[in-house]
Structure formats: structure tokens, C-alpha cells
Specification:
This protein is mainly α and 315 residues long. Helix 5 runs antiparallel to helix 6. Keywords: Cell membrane, Membrane, Transmembrane, Transmembrane helix, Transport. InterPro entries: BPD_transp_1_N (IPR045621), MetI-like (IPR000515), MetI-like_sf (IPR035906). It is a multi-pass membrane protein. Belongs to the binding-protein-dependent transport system permease family. This is ABC transporter permease.
């Protein structure tokens, strides 16, 4: 297991290195001159050359990359030329917790509702319950996330005035306020993943309940709930964890629209603003943070496989 974990960690580091090279190279090729934008009305050839030298942008590209990568590792991500604040403080300490809170809330909501609905649909196959769950999931996936968010704002925020529609409250500072502010964004972001989890749980549980070991559990007289939730659902966990790990990228992509609709100051809104303002340092920080989240999540999924299925343990 130690060698298996070390090999996975090494692969993760290699992927992150490739992502860092790709993001640095693509932003170098992007049109526009960030130094000219930083100078604004104070632009002159002398000031431009001086700031280029000060930022190290007049050095070879390979040296610039190594300096940027070493700075990123130790938390020196540069300074935003618009807010004049350190990018690490702005991106990692302020924007990232908002996106993580939104993603975790949406994922928890999708799993806590999606798995029981999938179990209900599988154990009531070809009944009215199965048709009702299928209709519900199909309806949920038919709405684009931005439209669903606007619809929820209009119904529950404007007409019924049950939930706030804008802003973010940190749940670690105000738990109830955080839950209330995150309810509508989490529902908006979780709808697609909830439907996916329902379908995945249903399909795999139907197959699992037809296996001989489930028939043996029934023959031993075990309760129906134990046959379904212990023997049957255990074999659903592996594909479910796999899909959740692979879908993190789509979750983060959906968070961009959700943060825009609900005015959440997260990574998505930060990167949108940075692209429009050509703040390449902020864009690089956002790309690397997103890549780290995605790759580390998949690393956790890979390391969890041997514990979810002993057959996958290295020998």
C-alpha cells in the first residue's frame, strides 16, 4: 500500500507540473500587455522598461517560469495591479473558501438526496415511485443552472422572501446565516449532480440486488433494509465515488455560473473578472488552484479504492 500511495502521489505531482507549464505558456501567448495596463495613464517607454525589469518580465521565459513556480509553492503569488492586494490573500484566503463551501454544500446535498432516491427507484422498479423519481430527475436536468438560479431567486427570494438572494456569509463565523445564504446556490449547483447520482445508484443497485451473494443474504433471513443498504449499496460505492471524483471539474465549472448569478465572491467570479481585466497573475493562480483541487480529489479517490473494494488492493 505504501508503494501504491507513493506512486499515485508522484503521478499527481507530474500532472500538476504539466498543468503549471501549460497555464504559464498559454498566458504568455495571450494578447495584450499587462505592464501597460498596470501603468495606465502613467505609461511611457522608460516606465514600461523599468516595470518590466522590476517584475522580471525582461528575463528568459524559462527563468520567469521557475521564479513563478517557486513563488507559487511558497505562497508568493504576486500582487493584483487593480486591488494592489497580494494575490495569495485575495485568491486563496478569500475566494477559495467561498467556492469550496459552495461545492461541498452542493455535493453533500446531491449525495444525501440522490442516494436515497436512487435506492427508492431501484427497490420500486417499474412502479409509480420509479416513474416519479425518473420524472423528477429529468425535470431537474432540463433546466440550465443559470436559469434555475434565477428562477429560485424570483420564487424564494423575491416572491416568498424566504432566502437571501445575494452575498456570502461564512458558516464558520455564523452557521445559520451561512446555511441560509448558501441554500439557493447549493440547490442550483447540485441539481445536475443529484440527477446523475440517482441514475447511477439505481442502475448499479438493480444489478447488485440480482447477484448471488444478495440471494444468499435473503436466504439467511436478513432484514430487507440490511440486504439493500449493506450488501447491495456497498457495491454501488465504488462507481459512485469514481463519478464524483471525475465530475469535480464540472462542479467547479458550474460554480462559475452559480457564483455569478448569486454574486458570490468565489474563484469563478474572481477568474471572470481577472480575464476581463487581463490580470494574468490572478488567472494563473485560479487555474492552478482549480487544477490542484481536481487532481488532489482524484488522488483521494484512487487511494480510497483499495478500502472500498479489497480486490483492488496491491499484492
Amino acid at each position: 500500500m505504501a508503494w501504491f500511495a507513493a506512486r499515485k502521489v508522484l503521478q499527481t505531482l507530474m500532472v500538476l507540473l504539466i498543468v503549471s507549464v501549460a497555464s504559464f505558456s498559454l498566458l504568455k501567448l495571450a494578447p495584450g500587455d499587462p505592464v501597460q495596463l498596470m501603468l495606465g495613464s502613467e505609461y511611457s517607454p522608460e516606465a514600461h522598461a523599468s516595470l518590466m525589469a522590476q517584475l522580471g518580465l525582461d528575463r528568459p521565459v524559462a527563468e520567469q517560469y521557475l521564479r513563478w513556480l517557486s513563488g507559487f509553492v511558497v505562497g508568493d503569488w504576486g500582487t493584483s495591479f487593480i486591488s494592489k492586494a497580494p494575490i495569495f490573500q485575495y485568491a486563496f484566503m478569500e475566494a477559495l473558501p467561498v467556492t469550496l463551501t459552495l461545492a461541498a454544500s452542493a455535493l453533500a446535498l446531491a449525495v444525501l438526496i440522490g442516494v436515497p432516491l436512487g435506492v427508492l427507484s431501484a427497490t420500486r422498479k417499474d412502479t409509480g415511485w420509479d416513474a416519479a423519481v425518473a420524472t423528477l430527475t429529468l425535470t431537474g436536468t432540463s433546466f440550465p443552472s443559470f436559469y434555475l438560479g434565477i428562477l429560485l431567486i424570483w420564487i424564494f427570494g423575491v416572491k416568498l422572501a424566504l432566502f437571501p438572494t445575494l452575498g456570502f456569509v461564512a458558516p464558520w463565523n455564523d452557521l445559520w446565516g451561512g446555511i441560509v445564504h448558501m441554500t439557493l446556490p447549493a440547490i442550483t449547483l447540485s441539481t445536475y449532480f443529484l440527477a446523475m447520482i440517482v441514475r447511477l445508484t439505481r442502475a448499479n443497485l438493480i444489478e447488485a440486488l440480482e447477484q448471488p451473494y444478495v440471494a444468499a443474504a435473503r436466504a439467511r433471513g436478513e432484514p430487507r433494509w440490511r440486504v439493500v443498504w449493506v450488501h447491495g449499496l456497498r457495491n454501488v460505492m465504488l462507481p459512485l465515488v469514481t463519478i464524483l471524483g471525475l465530475q469535480l471539474g464540472a462542479l467547479l465549472q458550474g460554480a462559475v455560473l452559480t457564483e455569478t448569478v448569486f454574486s458570490l465572491p468565489g474563484v469563478g467570479q474572481m477568474m471572470t473578472s481577472a480575464v476581463l481585466n487581463r490580470e494574468y497573475g490572478v488567472v494563473q493562480a485560479g487555474v492552478m488552484m482549480t487544477a490542484c483541487l481536481f487532481v488532489l480529489t482524484n488522488l483521494a479517490v484512487d487511494l480510497a479504492y483499495p478500502y472500498l473494494d479489497p480486490r483492488l488492493r496491491p499484492r
